[in-house]
Amino acid sequence: MFHAVQYRPLRLITQTTLPSMCLKLIFSRPVAFAQIWKSWFSSHSLIGNKNIILMGPPGAGKTTVGRIVGQKLDCPVIDVDDDVLETTWNMSVSEKLQDVGNEQFLEEEGKALLKISASGIVISLTGSNPMHAAAMEHVKKNGIVVYLDVPTAVIMRRLKLMKVDRIVGQGSGMSLKDILQFRKQFYKRWHDIRVLCGGEITAEAIAEKVLDAVKRYQNSELETFISTRSSRSGNCKQKDSAKYFSDVVTEGLAPDGGLFVPESGLPKLTAGEWQSLIEATYVERAQVILERCIHPADIPASTLGEIIGTAYGENFSCSKIAPVRHLTGNQFLLELFHGPTASFKDFALQMMPHIFAYCVPRSCNYLVLVATSGDTGSAVLDGFSRLHDTDKQRIAVMSFFPEDGVSQIQKSQMIGCQKENAWSVGVKSDFDFCQTAIKQIFTNSDYTGFLTVEYGTALAAANSINWARLLPQIVYHASAYLDLVHQDIIAFGSPVDVCIPTGNFGNILAALYAKMMGIPIRKCICASNENNVLTDFIRTGIYDLRGRRLIPTLSPAVDILKSSNLERYLHLIANGDGQLVTQLYNQLENQGHFQLQKDLLEKLQQDLVAGWCSEEDCLAAIHSVYSTTGYILDTHTAVAKVVADRLQDRTCPIIISSTAHYSKFAPAILRALRIAEIKQNPLSQLHLLSSYSPLPPVHWGLLETLKKNENEDHQICAADTSMLMSHIEALIQNHFM
């Protein structure tokens, strides 16, 4: 429990700045003046003329932490409750509240805060200050607002010990817990920095975290990105060539053909910080994690919060966003299909378009290109079509998919998701061609330069090669673990395994990143279908495409031979050796294979194990799980289930990523369950599934999209990069000119 502050360096500063205050004190209190002048200069190096403003609920420890921060910076401290309100009113805060009531109290409190005009000090706000907009705008102009984020359950315990059962703003019939939850929206609106404060952390430790967070806030130049094909002392070393989050979102692919990664790696949360998120909602967890990964100089915390709220609001049919469901034994399903297009791709692509729109300059138009093996196409089209109208005028998206390499329902869904700024193009080839062609287009400086000069349009990427696609996926892997803790399945710190159907290596890489950030994931199990190049690689260290042809399967989203995001993982385990990564990928491009050296393979196998699943076993798993549990797996989740059954050692829970809703693959489901003759029309397939009452309902968004757009068409392109470039130019002319 935090104790009240007995001493404060400064009682009240109103309507003055620090230097002028010092001039007033010099004649009457020369010793105090000397102390304050010294304090001002010693703290000036960290916060300059800014104030550190501590914000949080009652019981968060703002007063105690503020005093400690002030002592560490050797600068003055104001506690608004004691130094401003009680001094101004000549009565206690509780007496004032009883005298004027809730509404008038907030107004009077705000007026008092409006009188503060100081710089280079620490200010501890009251718990209700953030509810007065004008007052907060006033103090925020010259301050860095630090939110002491304490779990509500911890605050409730502290207030009980303090014998507080009522706080400002708590109306009749409203519980203490309700008003604490209500106030969170205001803290979310005003904070620049968040400091997570678990139940056991000391005030001294929180003060250190505050100072570290302020240093990070003031030093955005430290959070740079490099290419996987450059060394850590390479082309991003010079300040004028440094790449920041906004840059890598805009550019997508590095100029040398590599992928962008954070130069200093991902941040790591402490066990206490993770535990403080156990009671949090998915949206709250997302904001905390992404604030740590995205510097506020790129996207301010309040703006990031708005983006997350928009992404995971009404667009998802389940309030838990990514619920974890028990399947059987120690197996759990992470359901990632409750978004508008029924696949895990929605988690990134409901958010990434808004991040992109915020980060890119408004002086240029942007055409976002994406290659898809099925699910990404509809998700990216839906996501970018939800941008504000002004953004849709300057940002368009084009999705290339293998014309004969996706399910009929996936194709119909992509066609149905076309909007005024979003188009689909079928390519007479496979996904690997689509992905390679887009990479070639991005690295063709003559062509991209021509588009910029001739049409004022730049190209951007929305595949998982774009860093903004990967970050949101880290959240659901972390959230799944926290849900198991919340459900008392495991204690925090106990390990879990995860099993993920894997093609382009993005989803499983996000799980590995969650592990790096402190989530106790033991093994990541890579599940392949008959295109099992990754399984062979993880087992042997040899990535060999020689003589391999892509096999169309019932799980088309993982029908991939060249896994783009594997490059990021190899860069990670090679300790940032960009030259080695370049050598490996040049060899893959020129000779069709490469082999990891023994020490790297050993590192890889500490994180990863792998297996693959045949078509027959995939269908059998769908039938078996439905027969025993009544649950229907989609084909990709069935692949993961088969591999999990074979590879898990049953010493800890295993979380299987359920990456798509079963109704996206109706023919395979009908075949697996032996229900009826399969009809070719996608809408008929869904109606047949819907009519079979024992089955869970088909996905709401999928059925709606197909009903509305049954007769729409799309463009088809030959497997020729120059033809893709022609389609791109034609689209730019039609949309932007």
Describe this structure in words.
The structure is a single chain. The protein is of the alpha/beta class. Helices cover 49% and strands 13% of the residues. The chain is built from 33 helices and 20 strands. The chain has a six-stranded mixed beta sheet with strand order 8-9-19-14-15-18, sandwiched between helices. A five-stranded parallel beta sheet has the order 2-3-1-4-5, sandwiched between helices. It has a five-stranded parallel beta sheet with strand order 13-10-11-12-20. A hairpin with a 2-residue loop joins β8 (324-328) and β9 (331-335). α5 packs across α6, α17 (375-385) runs parallel beside α19 (408-416) and α28 crosses α30. Mean pLDDT is 89; it is low at 1-43. Pfam families: SKI (PF01202), Thr_synth_N (PF14821). It comes from Casuarius casuarius (Southern cassowary). This is THNS1 protein.
Q: CATH top level of the domain at 271-339 and 468-708? A: Alpha Beta
The third-level CATH topology of the domain at 271-339 and 468-708 is: Rossmann fold
Q: What's the number of helices?
A: 33
Shape: globular
Q: Which class best fits the helix and strand makeup? A: alpha/beta
With strands numbered from the N-terminus, the spatial order across the biggest sheet is 8-9-19-14-15-18
Given as residue ranges, the uncertain stretches (5+ residues, pLDDT < 50) are 1-43
Biggest β-sheet description = 6 strands, mixed
Number of strands: 20
Mean pLDDT: 89
| Percent in helix | 40-55%
Specify the CATH architecture of the domain at 271-339 and 468-708: 3-Layer(aba) Sandwich
Rg, Å, rounded: 28 Å
End-to-end C-alpha gap? 64 Å
Strand content: 5-15%
Organism: Casuarius casuarius (Southern cassowary)
Cofactor: pyridoxal 5'-phosphate
Keywords: Amino-acid biosynthesis, Pyridoxal phosphate
Modified residues (N6-(pyridoxal phosphate)lysine): 345
